[in-house]
Amino acid sequence: MIGQDTLCCENCFSDFVLKRYIKENGQQGSCSFCGSSSVSCLPPGSLESFFIPLLGLYVPAEDVMPTELLKEYDGSFFWERLTEEWVIFSDEVVEQADDLLKEILASLSDETSYFRFLDVWVVEACELDEDVKRERN
Fold it and tell me: pTM for this one?
């Protein structure tokens, strides 16, 4: 599914802004993620600028939690946070949200801290537990 000709469509998202952007800037095609055909589609990477600001709202849990807390932590991945808290992805692609997000952020190198978010649990940067904040200092 993932490749140079990979496309996502307006039906992949619940977010109004993303849907409108794809409708206004996309071309008729078939979606690689939800399977819709004859819909406005774009390469996923063209949506990267919409997702970068959201990355700034989270930090990898392993960077802010002591090992003892991590052992008991029932965390969420970044794509899960976007699905549950922001309702960005539509029901049609919830099962592929991880792959879609990786395609959206594919231009980010494995070396960047942003790309690392895709495979680790994240916590909200603004709501770190006071004990965790003390441990970091």
Answer: 0.76
Q: Which regions in the chain score pLDDT beneath 70?
A: 1-4, 65, 67, 69-74, 109-137
pLDDT digits (tens, 9 = 90+) for 32-49: 999 999 999 999 999 999
CA distance 56 to 59: 7
Q: Are strands 27-29 and 39-42 parallel, antiparallel or unpaired?
A: antiparallel
| Structure tokens, 37 | 């055909």
Task: Kindly give, in sequence order, each residue whose CB lies less than 8 Å from that of residue 120, ignoring residues fewer than 6 positions away.
Answer: 60, 61, 62, 77
| First-to-final CA distance of the chain | 44
